[in-house]
Amino acid sequence: MWRRHALTAALVLAAHLIKVLSCGEARGTGGAGGAGSESRARRYVGLYTGPYFDPAAPNNVTAQLGTHAYLPCKVRQLSNKSVSWIRRRDAHILTVDRFTFIADERFQAFLVEATDTWTLQVKYVQPRDAGLYECQVGTEPKMSHFVQLNVVVPKIEIAGESEIYVKAGSTVSLKCIITQALEEPAYIFWYHNDQRVLSYRRGLRDIRVERLGPDTIVGHLVLHHPVREDSGNYSCAPSNLDSASVVLHVLSGEQPAAMQHGNAARPAAPNAVLLTLGALTALWGMSRGPRVPSRGDPGRGVAVLLAPFIPLIRLLAFVVSTLILCHDEDDSQ
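C-alpha coordinates predicted for Ig-like domain-containing protein (333 residues):
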Protein backbone atom coordinates (compact mmCIF):
# COMPACT_ATOMS: atom_id res chain seq x y z
CA MET A 1 0.00 0.00 0.00
CA TRP A 2 2.73 2.46 0.92
CA ARG A 3 4.45 1.76 -2.38
CA ARG A 4 1.29 2.77 -4.25
CA HIS A 5 1.12 6.09 -2.31
CA ALA A 6 4.79 6.74 -2.94
CA LEU A 7 4.30 6.14 -6.65
CA THR A 8 1.34 8.53 -6.76
CA ALA A 9 3.34 11.24 -5.00
CA ALA A 10 6.21 10.73 -7.40
CA LEU A 11 3.91 11.09 -10.41
CA VAL A 12 2.40 14.34 -9.03
CA LEU A 13 5.87 15.72 -8.40
CA ALA A 14 7.00 14.74 -11.87
CA ALA A 15 3.97 16.44 -13.42
CA HIS A 16 4.73 19.61 -11.52
CA LEU A 17 8.36 19.54 -12.65
CA ILE A 18 7.31 19.05 -16.25
CA LYS A 19 4.95 22.08 -15.97
CA VAL A 20 7.73 24.22 -14.52
CA LEU A 21 10.16 23.15 -17.23
CA SER A 22 7.62 23.77 -19.97
CA CYS A 23 6.99 27.25 -18.63
CA GLY A 24 10.74 27.89 -18.63
CA GLU A 25 11.01 26.79 -22.25
CA ALA A 26 8.08 28.99 -23.20
CA ARG A 27 9.85 32.04 -21.79
CA GLY A 28 12.69 31.45 -24.22
CA THR A 29 10.50 31.20 -27.30
CA GLY A 30 9.42 34.89 -27.20
CA GLY A 31 6.31 36.29 -28.92
CA ALA A 32 2.87 36.81 -27.49
CA GLY A 33 2.54 33.21 -26.38
CA GLY A 34 5.86 33.41 -24.57
CA ALA A 35 4.77 36.56 -22.75
CA GLY A 36 1.53 34.93 -21.59
CA SER A 37 3.38 31.85 -20.35
CA GLU A 38 5.86 34.07 -18.53
CA SER A 39 3.01 35.89 -16.82
CA ARG A 40 1.43 32.63 -15.71
CA ALA A 41 4.77 31.36 -14.45
CA ARG A 42 5.24 34.47 -12.30
CA ARG A 43 1.81 33.97 -10.77
CA TYR A 44 2.30 30.44 -9.58
CA VAL A 45 6.02 30.04 -8.98
CA GLY A 46 7.71 31.72 -6.03
CA LEU A 47 7.14 32.39 -2.35
CA TYR A 48 3.37 32.75 -2.87
CA THR A 49 1.63 30.12 -4.96
CA GLY A 50 -1.78 31.84 -4.78
CA PRO A 51 -3.38 35.24 -4.07
CA TYR A 52 -1.79 37.47 -1.45
CA PHE A 53 -2.15 41.09 -0.30
CA ASP A 54 0.59 43.57 -1.07
CA PRO A 55 2.09 44.42 2.35
CA ALA A 56 2.82 47.96 1.14
CA ALA A 57 -0.87 48.71 0.57
CA PRO A 58 -2.24 51.44 2.90
CA ASN A 59 -4.69 50.47 5.62
CA ASN A 60 -5.66 53.98 6.73
CA VAL A 61 -7.41 56.55 4.51
CA THR A 62 -8.55 60.06 5.47
CA ALA A 63 -11.09 62.05 3.45
CA GLN A 64 -12.80 65.39 3.93
CA LEU A 65 -16.54 65.74 4.30
CA GLY A 66 -18.22 65.98 0.90
CA THR A 67 -15.24 64.73 -1.13
CA HIS A 68 -14.57 61.29 -2.66
CA ALA A 69 -12.69 58.58 -0.74
CA TYR A 70 -10.71 55.78 -2.37
CA LEU A 71 -9.93 52.62 -0.40
CA PRO A 72 -7.27 50.49 -2.12
CA CYS A 73 -6.88 46.72 -1.94
CA LYS A 74 -3.83 45.37 -3.76
CA VAL A 75 -4.15 41.63 -4.43
CA ARG A 76 -1.30 39.88 -6.20
CA GLN A 77 -1.72 36.63 -8.15
CA LEU A 78 -5.50 36.87 -7.88
CA SER A 79 -6.16 34.56 -10.83
CA ASN A 80 -9.92 33.92 -11.10
CA LYS A 81 -10.77 34.62 -7.46
CA SER A 82 -13.42 37.20 -6.63
CA VAL A 83 -12.88 40.31 -4.47
CA SER A 84 -15.57 41.65 -2.15
CA TRP A 85 -15.82 44.85 -0.11
CA ILE A 86 -17.69 44.59 3.21
CA ARG A 87 -18.64 47.36 5.66
CA ARG A 88 -17.69 46.00 9.05
CA ARG A 89 -20.09 47.99 11.27
CA ASP A 90 -23.13 46.21 9.82
CA ALA A 91 -21.46 43.36 7.84
CA HIS A 92 -23.10 44.73 4.68
CA ILE A 93 -21.62 43.41 1.42
CA LEU A 94 -21.03 46.51 -0.69
CA THR A 95 -19.48 45.08 -3.84
CA VAL A 96 -18.34 41.79 -5.37
CA ASP A 97 -15.86 42.41 -8.15
CA ARG A 98 -17.49 45.16 -10.25
CA PHE A 99 -21.03 44.45 -9.06
CA THR A 100 -22.61 46.66 -6.37
CA PHE A 101 -24.93 45.11 -3.76
CA ILE A 102 -26.13 48.21 -1.92
CA ALA A 103 -28.79 50.72 -2.86
CA ASP A 104 -26.50 53.62 -1.99
CA GLU A 105 -25.10 54.66 -5.36
CA ARG A 106 -22.16 56.42 -3.73
CA PHE A 107 -20.35 53.07 -3.44
CA GLN A 108 -18.53 51.56 -6.41
CA ALA A 109 -15.59 49.20 -6.93
CA PHE A 110 -13.23 49.16 -9.87
CA LEU A 111 -10.01 47.39 -10.83
CA VAL A 112 -6.76 49.08 -11.77
CA GLU A 113 -5.11 46.23 -13.65
CA ALA A 114 -1.70 47.87 -13.87
CA THR A 115 -1.35 47.67 -10.07
CA ASP A 116 -3.65 44.71 -9.31
CA THR A 117 -5.69 47.06 -7.11
CA TRP A 118 -9.39 46.69 -6.37
CA THR A 119 -10.47 50.14 -5.17
CA LEU A 120 -13.66 50.95 -3.31
CA GLN A 121 -14.89 54.45 -4.14
CA VAL A 122 -17.12 56.32 -1.70
CA LYS A 123 -18.56 59.48 -3.23
CA TYR A 124 -19.52 62.58 -1.26
CA VAL A 125 -18.25 61.19 2.04
CA GLN A 126 -20.50 61.69 5.07
CA PRO A 127 -19.56 61.40 8.78
CA ARG A 128 -21.50 58.12 9.02
CA ASP A 129 -19.15 56.57 6.41
CA ALA A 130 -16.24 56.57 8.85
CA GLY A 131 -15.20 53.13 10.07
CA LEU A 132 -13.57 49.86 9.09
CA TYR A 133 -13.96 48.27 5.65
CA GLU A 134 -12.93 44.71 4.70
CA CYS A 135 -11.48 43.66 1.36
CA GLN A 136 -12.12 39.91 1.11
CA VAL A 137 -10.72 37.45 -1.42
CA GLY A 138 -12.81 34.37 -2.24
CA THR A 139 -10.25 31.73 -1.31
CA GLU A 140 -10.71 28.84 1.12
CA PRO A 141 -10.30 29.92 3.81
CA LYS A 142 -11.17 33.57 3.07
CA MET A 143 -8.42 36.19 2.99
CA SER A 144 -9.10 39.69 4.35
CA HIS A 145 -7.42 43.09 4.26
CA PHE A 146 -8.86 45.92 6.41
CA VAL A 147 -8.89 49.63 5.64
CA GLN A 148 -9.90 52.32 8.15
CA LEU A 149 -11.75 55.32 6.70
CA ASN A 150 -11.48 58.57 8.65
CA VAL A 151 -13.79 61.50 7.82
CA VAL A 152 -12.60 65.03 8.61
CA VAL A 153 -15.35 67.63 9.12
CA PRO A 154 -14.01 71.17 8.59
CA LYS A 155 -15.15 73.96 10.92
CA ILE A 156 -16.70 77.07 9.41
CA GLU A 157 -17.52 80.40 11.07
CA ILE A 158 -17.79 84.09 10.32
CA ALA A 159 -15.36 86.10 12.42
CA GLY A 160 -16.82 88.44 15.03
CA GLU A 161 -20.19 88.68 16.72
CA SER A 162 -23.36 87.07 15.42
CA GLU A 163 -24.80 90.57 14.90
CA ILE A 164 -22.77 93.45 13.49
CA TYR A 165 -23.70 97.15 13.69
CA VAL A 166 -22.11 99.68 11.34
CA LYS A 167 -22.81 103.22 10.22
CA ALA A 168 -24.08 103.89 6.75
CA GLY A 169 -21.30 104.86 4.36
CA SER A 170 -18.57 102.99 6.24
CA THR A 171 -16.74 99.85 5.08
CA VAL A 172 -17.82 96.37 6.21
CA SER A 173 -15.47 93.37 6.00
CA LEU A 174 -16.92 89.89 6.57
CA LYS A 175 -14.54 86.93 6.92
CA CYS A 176 -15.66 83.34 6.43
CA ILE A 177 -13.00 81.19 8.12
CA ILE A 178 -12.73 77.47 7.28
CA THR A 179 -10.35 75.38 9.40
CA GLN A 180 -9.33 71.71 9.41
CA ALA A 181 -9.79 71.63 5.64
CA LEU A 182 -7.80 69.00 3.73
CA GLU A 183 -8.98 70.37 0.39
CA GLU A 184 -9.79 73.88 -0.69
CA PRO A 185 -13.48 74.23 -1.61
CA ALA A 186 -14.25 74.63 -5.28
CA TYR A 187 -16.06 77.87 -4.44
CA ILE A 188 -17.35 79.98 -1.55
CA PHE A 189 -20.67 81.68 -2.29
CA TRP A 190 -22.03 84.60 -0.26
CA TYR A 191 -25.77 85.14 0.19
CA HIS A 192 -27.72 88.20 1.36
CA ASN A 193 -31.20 87.20 2.57
CA ASP A 194 -30.99 84.01 0.45
CA GLN A 195 -29.98 85.99 -2.64
CA ARG A 196 -26.48 85.29 -3.95
CA VAL A 197 -24.10 88.23 -3.62
CA LEU A 198 -22.24 89.02 -6.83
CA SER A 199 -19.18 91.23 -7.23
CA TYR A 200 -20.26 92.89 -10.46
CA ARG A 201 -20.83 96.19 -8.63
CA ARG A 202 -17.30 97.54 -8.95
CA GLY A 203 -16.19 99.68 -6.05
CA LEU A 204 -19.10 98.56 -3.88
CA ARG A 205 -18.48 94.85 -3.28
CA ASP A 206 -15.29 92.78 -3.26
CA ILE A 207 -15.21 88.98 -3.00
CA ARG A 208 -12.01 86.95 -2.74
CA VAL A 209 -10.59 83.74 -1.24
CA GLU A 210 -7.17 83.13 0.32
CA ARG A 211 -5.43 80.19 1.97
CA LEU A 212 -3.78 80.68 5.34
CA GLY A 213 -1.65 77.70 6.23
CA PRO A 214 -2.15 74.09 5.14
CA ASP A 215 -5.68 73.66 6.52
CA THR A 216 -7.19 77.16 6.74
CA ILE A 217 -9.12 79.01 4.03
CA VAL A 218 -10.65 82.49 4.39
CA GLY A 219 -13.38 83.90 2.19
CA HIS A 220 -13.74 87.70 2.20
CA LEU A 221 -16.78 89.85 1.46
CA VAL A 222 -16.16 93.62 1.63
CA LEU A 223 -19.04 96.08 1.38
CA HIS A 224 -18.08 99.67 0.54
CA HIS A 225 -20.46 102.50 1.45
CA PRO A 226 -23.33 100.27 2.68
CA VAL A 227 -26.83 101.70 2.99
CA ARG A 228 -29.82 100.59 5.08
CA GLU A 229 -30.95 98.29 2.26
CA ASP A 230 -27.74 96.28 2.77
CA SER A 231 -28.91 95.23 6.24
CA GLY A 232 -29.98 91.64 6.76
CA ASN A 233 -28.65 88.09 7.00
CA TYR A 234 -25.34 87.29 5.30
CA SER A 235 -24.16 83.70 4.94
CA CYS A 236 -21.13 82.05 3.36
CA ALA A 237 -21.64 78.65 1.74
CA PRO A 238 -18.53 76.70 0.65
CA SER A 239 -18.96 73.80 -1.74
CA ASN A 240 -19.86 70.50 -0.03
CA LEU A 241 -19.88 72.14 3.44
CA ASP A 242 -22.39 73.66 5.81
CA SER A 243 -22.91 77.41 5.82
CA ALA A 244 -22.30 80.10 8.46
CA SER A 245 -24.28 83.32 8.84
CA VAL A 246 -24.24 86.72 10.50
CA VAL A 247 -26.78 89.56 10.79
CA LEU A 248 -25.69 93.00 9.60
CA HIS A 249 -27.36 96.22 10.78
CA VAL A 250 -26.59 99.37 8.80
CA LEU A 251 -27.49 102.40 10.94
CA SER A 252 -28.25 105.97 9.96
CA GLY A 253 -27.33 108.27 12.87
CA GLU A 254 -28.00 105.78 15.72
CA GLN A 255 -25.37 104.80 18.24
CA PRO A 256 -24.17 101.32 17.18
CA ALA A 257 -22.84 100.36 20.63
CA ALA A 258 -26.13 101.18 22.30
CA MET A 259 -28.20 99.18 19.82
CA GLN A 260 -25.78 96.27 19.93
CA HIS A 261 -26.54 95.86 23.66
CA GLY A 262 -30.27 96.39 23.11
CA ASN A 263 -30.44 99.45 25.38
CA ALA A 264 -31.04 103.12 24.72
CA ALA A 265 -28.01 105.33 25.24
CA ARG A 266 -27.91 107.09 28.61
CA PRO A 267 -26.63 110.66 28.31
CA ALA A 268 -23.60 111.39 30.44
CA ALA A 269 -24.43 115.07 30.94
CA PRO A 270 -27.20 114.55 33.58
CA ASN A 271 -24.86 112.37 35.65
CA ALA A 272 -22.20 115.05 35.63
CA VAL A 273 -24.79 117.68 36.64
CA LEU A 274 -25.98 115.55 39.55
CA LEU A 275 -22.46 114.97 40.76
CA THR A 276 -21.76 118.73 40.66
CA LEU A 277 -24.97 119.58 42.53
CA GLY A 278 -24.28 116.96 45.20
CA ALA A 279 -20.77 118.32 45.80
CA LEU A 280 -22.02 121.92 46.04
CA THR A 281 -24.77 120.89 48.48
CA ALA A 282 -22.34 119.09 50.76
CA LEU A 283 -19.87 121.98 50.73
CA TRP A 284 -22.63 124.50 51.36
CA GLY A 285 -23.94 122.47 54.29
CA MET A 286 -20.50 122.16 55.86
CA SER A 287 -19.83 125.90 55.47
CA ARG A 288 -23.05 126.88 57.27
CA GLY A 289 -22.57 124.44 60.08
CA PRO A 290 -25.31 122.53 61.90
CA ARG A 291 -28.71 124.13 62.56
CA VAL A 292 -30.08 123.50 66.04
CA PRO A 293 -33.88 123.55 66.26
CA SER A 294 -35.57 126.09 68.58
CA ARG A 295 -37.05 125.14 71.94
CA GLY A 296 -40.53 124.73 70.47
CA ASP A 297 -39.48 122.35 67.68
CA PRO A 298 -40.28 118.68 68.24
CA GLY A 299 -37.32 116.37 68.31
CA ARG A 300 -35.01 119.08 69.67
CA GLY A 301 -33.13 116.54 71.81
CA VAL A 302 -32.33 114.26 68.89
CA ALA A 303 -31.32 117.23 66.74
CA VAL A 304 -28.97 118.50 69.40
CA LEU A 305 -27.29 115.08 69.61
CA LEU A 306 -26.95 114.74 65.79
CA ALA A 307 -26.00 118.34 65.08
CA PRO A 308 -22.21 117.83 65.22
CA PHE A 309 -22.49 114.90 62.76
CA ILE A 310 -24.71 116.54 60.12
CA PRO A 311 -21.80 117.69 57.86
CA LEU A 312 -20.32 114.19 58.04
CA ILE A 313 -23.69 112.62 57.19
CA ARG A 314 -24.04 114.95 54.20
CA LEU A 315 -20.54 114.07 53.02
CA LEU A 316 -21.29 110.33 53.31
CA ALA A 317 -24.51 110.79 51.36
CA PHE A 318 -22.57 112.60 48.64
CA VAL A 319 -20.00 109.77 48.43
CA VAL A 320 -22.71 107.09 48.26
CA SER A 321 -24.62 108.95 45.54
CA THR A 322 -21.39 109.38 43.58
CA LEU A 323 -20.67 105.63 43.72
CA ILE A 324 -24.21 104.80 42.61
CA LEU A 325 -24.02 107.20 39.65
CA CYS A 326 -20.62 105.86 38.58
CA HIS A 327 -21.97 102.31 38.74
CA ASP A 328 -24.91 103.33 36.53
CA GLU A 329 -22.50 104.87 34.03
CA ASP A 330 -20.52 101.61 33.84
CA ASP A 331 -23.71 99.64 33.24
CA SER A 332 -24.75 101.98 30.44
CA GLN A 333 -21.42 101.42 28.68
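The chain has a mean pLDDT of 75.
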